[in-house]
Amino acid sequence: MPATPASRPVRTRFAPSPTGYLHIGGARTALFSWAYARRHGGAFILRIEDTDVARSTPEAVQAILDGMRWLGLAHDEGPFYQMQRMDRYKDVIRQMLAAGTAYPCYMAAEELDRLREEQRARGEKPRYDGCWRPEPGKTLPPPPEGVQPVVRFRNPTEGVVAWDDLVKGRIEIANTELDDFIIARADGTPTYNFCVVVDDWDMGITHVIRGDDHVNNTPRQINVLRALGAEVPLYAHLSMILGDDGTKLSKRHGAVSVMQYDDDGYLPEAVINYLARLGWSHGDDEVFSRAQFVEWFDLDHITPSAAQFNTEKLNWLNAQYLKKADDAFLAAEVANRLARREVDPETGVSLEAVVALYKDRVANLNELADAVELFVAEVHPAPEVIGQHLTEAARAALAGLRRRLAEVAWDKAALAQAIKDTMAEHGLKMPQVAIPLRVAVLGVAQTPSIDAVLEVLGRERVLARLDRHL
Question: CB under 8 Å to 206, separation ≥6 — which residues?
Answer without folding.
Answer: 5, 6, 8, 9, 10, 11, 12, 42, 233, 234
